[in-house]
Amino acid sequence: MKKYYVTTPIYYINDDPHIGHVYTTMAADIVKRFKISQGYEVMFLTGTDENAVKIERVAKEKGIPTQEFVDNLAVRWEQYFRMFDLGFDDFIRTTQPRHVKTVQTVITKLFENGDVYKGKYEGWYCVPCETYFLESDLKEGNCPDCGRPVERVSEENYFFKLTSYRDKLLEYFDTHPDFVMPKSRFNEVYSVIKEGLRDVSFTRTGVDWGIKVPFDEKHVVYVWADALINYITAAGYVTNPDNFNNIWPADIHLMAKEIIRFHCIIWPAMLMALGLPLPKRVFAHGWLTCDGRKMSKSLGNFVKPHIEVEELVKISGVSEVLAKDAFRYFLFRELPFGEDGDFSRTNMQLRYNTDLANDLGNLLNRSQQLLTKNFGGIIPDGKVFPELAQKFEEIFKSYLEKMEEFKFSQALESLWIYINTLNTSIELKKPWELVKMGKTDELANLHYTLYDGIRIISSLLSPFMPETSKILAKAVGLDEAPKIANLKVGQLKIGVKIVQTPAMFPRIQKKTEEQTKPPDAKVEETQDDLMSIDDFQKFKFRVAKILTAECVDGADKLLKLTIDLGDEKRTVAAGIAKYYKPEDLIGKLIVCVANLKPAKLRGITSQGMLMAATNKGVDEVIIITPEKPVEPGSIVK
Ligand code: MSP
User: Fold this and answer.
1) Does residue 239 contact residue 197 with C-beta atoms inside 8 Å?
2) Nearest CA to ligand 1 atom 8
3) Of the four listed, 469, 506, 557, 562, which is most buried by Cβ atoms within 10 Å?
4) Residues 474-482, mean pLDDT to the nearest whole number
5) Distances (CA, A) of 82 to 79, 90, 106, 291, 310
6) For residues 193 and 276, what is the distance between their CA atoms, to the nearest angstrom?
7) Mean pLDDT over each residue of the chain, to the nearest integer
8) 396 CA → ligand 1 middle, Å
9) What does pTM read for this prediction?
10) What domains does the chain contain, in order, with CATH numbers?
């Protein structure tokens, strides 16, 4: 079986985990589940970085012996990650004997090979960042990264000859353009190497807490040199060489962008010095903020994932396991992996309602109600509609491509196109009319298409929403979701009796209009030809979602749309046929004037008008769509 080795950073444990730590660890869990579903045997490593000066200081401040302090916190971190069902196979702690032994072996080897030599360090050290700086690096005397005060260090230390690996590193980067992702991070690291490197101090003498240098016990190993080695400790470099040969190099090191220099410069150089292969890829995601602000101790605004899950359960009534899935979904759908992203509870609730309660939830509910009503809950002998089979091929291809590139949000976007195409097929095929007309074959095909679609969704959703995926698999009569590696359309078993699933994602009830009304504003009118606010208030703009879109016979400019306005569905004729294909519009949110008198256009009674921009000087019409998902029916003002 093909092997895959994925890692997260090991985290400093001077406090409890927050959303940032859970984010990277969840990403690794997504990668693991995806790779397993593709037929790989996966090793997923996470853990804790315990030999840091800052940890020792916090323990001292709290009056707790350092070892006892880290022992307690490591258990809490591991439990926290387990609470979110993050399926790591190994949880490494840098105070474990296996790691101490590996670090001591590595530093000795580097010393014996002449890659580590004794020297004198004169400079500065930032304890919060656990990083050395020269006088010239400082910004107004403070740490150039975190802005906090730095400490003077004047010590006899052992240095790692990073400078002698500069050319080899450049050559490696030149020949491995995918080594660091995204590309912007690759370029950043590349230019740092190009500018020139300095040897790094690899030991400290002024501190007691840490791993002793075996050939000179006055020294402890610098925490970053120690921490990076964790990836080979866990693979068994010293303690289990067979396993090590089987699994190393790692396929991917995941982390946020602030620590790539350690992972893309120092770590590869250390591996080169040891004669070991380099990890295949380093992927750095962005930083999460909360409601647009950096999370920090002083602001006290660290988002705690368990609190967000509790809140979601409270306001929606969703079960706890599905609330955890919804939280995962939001993080990886809303925030493009690789870029900075903002966590906002309001946005999470919007996504929950639109994507999960409406799109996914409705698909399952409607499919189940129709199957019970029309076929007594038994999957009929039918065929997947060719257009849906084709849609599957399209979205599956793009889903796989995006997953390989770690573009999780786009992979989910492709999946949602498929979900909404299935939803639309109900509107288009109108099963209630098929029943009336006695078109049983077509009716069977529709139900088969829907259920086969839910089977496919259970598979593609499994890396992101494992519990939801299980429920969907059960809902189509399977014990588990199909593996992504073997996914094909039309594999649903016929004749299976379906057990109905209760609603998975109950809607969060929206605020009444009164509550969302803006405070009255007094506006002074200055020019007579301008519209008064009273005139403007006559317009009722609303957000709507396009459910169906079709061409109109004999009117090549028009598209006939069915739109969802929250509490009602309407038909709208829009003159955009030249600019949009009907299938590209389905599921889009638009802005529409909701209080226009109905008008007949080419035989269609249009009950509203869609807003669009006409691109200046170009024959192009672009529909106006909200910047983020908004509930259909929401007021635009
Ligand atoms: N101990 C080092 C890593 C050693 S790896 C050999 C360290 N630890 S840390 O506790 O500071 O964790 C940093 C990592 O936590 C980030 O790289 C990222 O994975 C995660 N995050 C912590 N805060 C974060 C955000 N605000 N946003 C996104 N992820 C961040 O550095």
Assistant:
1) no
2) 11
3) 469
4) 96
5) 5, 12, 31, 27, 16
6) 20
7) 92
8) 32
9) 0.82
10) 3-290 (3.40.50.620), 345-475 (1.10.730.10), 533-623 (2.40.50.140)
